Amino acid sequence: MTKQILLSTPHMGEQELNFVKEAFDTNWIAPVGPHVDAFEDEFCQLTGAGYAAAVSSGTAAIHLALRLLNVGQGDEIFCSTLTFIASANPIIYQGAKPVFIDSDRTSWNMNPELLREALEKRAKIGKLPKAVILVHLYGQCADIDPILEVCQKYDVPLIEDAAEALGANYKGRAPGTFGTIGIYSFNGNKIITTSGGGMLVSDDEKLVKKARFLATQARDTAPHYQHSQIGFNYRLSNVLAGIGRGQLQVLSERVQARRRNFEVYEKALSNLPGIEFMPEAEFGYSTRWLTCLTINPQAFGADRERLRLALAENRIESRPVWKPLHMQPVFAECESVGGEVAAYLFERGLCLPSGSNLTDQDKTRVIEGVKAVHENKKVSQDSLSMV
Ligand SMILES: *Cc1c(COP(=O)(O)O)cnc(C)c1O
Q: What percent of the chain stands above pLDDT 90?
């Protein structure tokens, strides 16, 4: 049977197993230990972040970020609409309300102009949000400068969700290090993985110390178990931190491989009518975590869903671009600012297999698969007219 080509799979380097073995040899099989500390230090060196707390997932990191900013019942949080639901779920965990902000076309990320207008309006009626969650989608940075500027003007803390953007940069600096708090994910499908894991960073040491405290059940200093606050069990295992240390060593290779996937696809497919690749905004360097394109069905001869199903028949996994959160049934009652751009990108957008471990042969199969759908359009139009 032909090999299944998946969207994005884990890609281990050579050192991970040695770090894991060290954890076993020294019996540090706990959510604490030397690998956790070293992973945090090495992560700071790599990103330029001030301080870091390793946690069990990116979602946990966002949840902690909201707790650190005292987000609670009835507060409002502005959040990018075009993203994975994990960006917004912790808002609900805290009893707060999301307000979704649309994307711009240059970066597919939060539109700074819409954010500015929305904050201005809210300032006038004295109802500013408690924080803004800014997503750096598919490895591309949002236009951080104007977003940060308007957040600072109204004194609204910025949380950067850089789960998909480790290894990217905005004007030379790592996304996640601009806002009050940044978060990253090491889930199995991300650019580097610990199988499951996340990181919270900040330049404010007090915040990161408090994150570690809350992530270990908020245990007060005492010989017995004493608690004056409700915490979480969110710390990263020392075994998994070992995997993370190995993965950090190959991060730039992984980013290069993903960018190379994009280049190969773009070279082979961008001349097909109706296909447009996700642009790379001039202010940043994208990880190209996933290669995304949009399809104009009239020009291409098939819509996004037809293409996806045709690829699936050839055992090639592709995925629609994130369904915007303002369109999700679970958020039907939530307010949103714009949303047409994100809806358009969802309707037309498709993510191609993008793992850093794809072979040339895999990519050739994907390319041939896409081309075949376009070339068959004539045939299928004829068969349609026969019906
Ligand atoms: C993966 C992802 C998360 C969540 O990370 P987990 O480690 O899976 O909890 C959050 N935001 C975005 C944009 C993601 O892609």
A: 96
Nearest CA to ligand 1 atom 12: 163
Look at residue 219 in the predicted model and tell me its pLDDT. 95
List strand residue ranges (DSSP E) for 86-212, in order. 97-101, 131-135, 158-161, 169-170, 181-185, 198-202
- Which residues have CB under 6 Å of ligand 1? 57-59, 83-84, 86-87, 135, 161, 163-164, 185, 187, 198
User: By C-alpha distance, which of 183, 113, 122 is closest to 149?
Assistant: 113
Q: What's the CATH code of the domain at 203? A: 3.40.640.10
Task: Please provide the DSSP assignment of 127-145 as one string.
Answer: ---SEEEEE-GGGPPP-HH
- Please give the pLDDT value at position 387: 43
Same domain for 74 and 23: yes
Ligand 1 atom with least separation from CA of 197:
7
Considering the domain architecture, whether residues 242 and 307 belong to the same structural domain is answered as no
pLDDT at 376: 85
Tens of pLDDT along 281-334?
Answer: 999 999 999 999 999 999 999 999 999 999 999 999 999 999 999 999 999 999
This prediction has a pTM of 0.96
Q: Tokens at residue 130, please?
A: 């408690």
Q: Is residue 2 part of a domain?
A: no
- Which structural domain, as residue segments, surrounds residue 285? 251-385
Residues 274 and 186 in one domain: no
Alpha-carbon gap, residue 135 to 203, rounded angstroms: 19
d(CA 184, CA 43): 10
Q: How far apart are CA 317 and CA 257, in angstroms?
A: 19
Domain boundary among 220, 248, 276: 248
Does 264 lie in the same domain as 229?
A: no
The Cα–Cα gap between 94 and 74 comes to: 9
